[in-house]
Amino acid sequence: MTVFFSCNYGFFWGLFGEENVDERSASMRSLQDDTPNFQAQSISLPKITGKSYSALVITDLHYGADWGNNKEDDFLEWFEDRIISCRDSSPEKIPRFIVNLGDTADGGHRSEFKDYVAFENRVKALAAEKLGDSDYKIYSILGNHDLYNNGVTEYDSLCYPYISSYYFSIDSDPYDSFKGFSFYFLDTANGTLGEYQLKDFKDKISDDSRPKIVLSHYPIYAGAGEADALLMRLQNTMERNTLLTYFSKYNVKQVYEGHIHKRTWFDFKKFREDVIQSFRYGEAAVFTVNESAGTVSTEIIKF
Fold first, then answer.
1. What is the pLDDT of residues 162-188, one digit of tens each?
2. Are 288 and 94 in contact (CB under 8 A)?
3. Tens digit of each residue's pLDDT (9 = 90 or more) over 9-61
């Protein structure tokens, strides 16, 4: 049997896909006017020093699924403990924002996305109380399950930032000459970036001299040596090789991904690729950026 993979659809399109990524995410939108507010957080926390701060990566929450567990309460307990325990000794380890890598809704239903928004509101309330940030940022991108049942419509209306292909940069001290890190959020929900998003991404990172972190639902390569991961990464080898080449050439330091529901990674030396375990199994990742050194470190946390 011969199987063909188009530029617009990955392996799972026949099972999950209901949209063409070239129509949905032809270009990456700048979110530069809506970045995390470190100044608001400094009211309750010491000012960021040493050009170092942290953020949290969660993925594959699958609201509506009948497997795993809803870990909201456990996560919120961990989040509060993290803030309290790190407030004085290591404030750079407190997550200043959160990234959700997709598969938020198991079936793409509005009720599932609304359950996620309710969870977001609980996190935001805690952040307002403990961090002094009434507009704590929780960024999201699409996963393949979010495409079920025309779920993109619900995602676009409910899940901040209401788009799934975007970028911004963070400079924790705007008065310093160093220009901080850039963050690129890719829409890979169809198992591909598609022709137009890929071109736009290539153009944007080649014009951006900052060190970079890339966020994607589908793994680009990581876990490729494991049999159960072979069909869970991007299937178009030309697209995959192009991305890995651009990551290496244009100062990408770290790539975070989900989709596989297990922890795996690959170190390319110039950059590292980490696949994060599903939230429903009580795991996530805290990454810490050191702007001065241009480095990113990853801590797997359990709750």
1. 999 999 999 876 656 557 999 999 999
2. no
3. 444 444 544 578 999 999 999 999 999 988 878 666 666 555 899 999 999 99
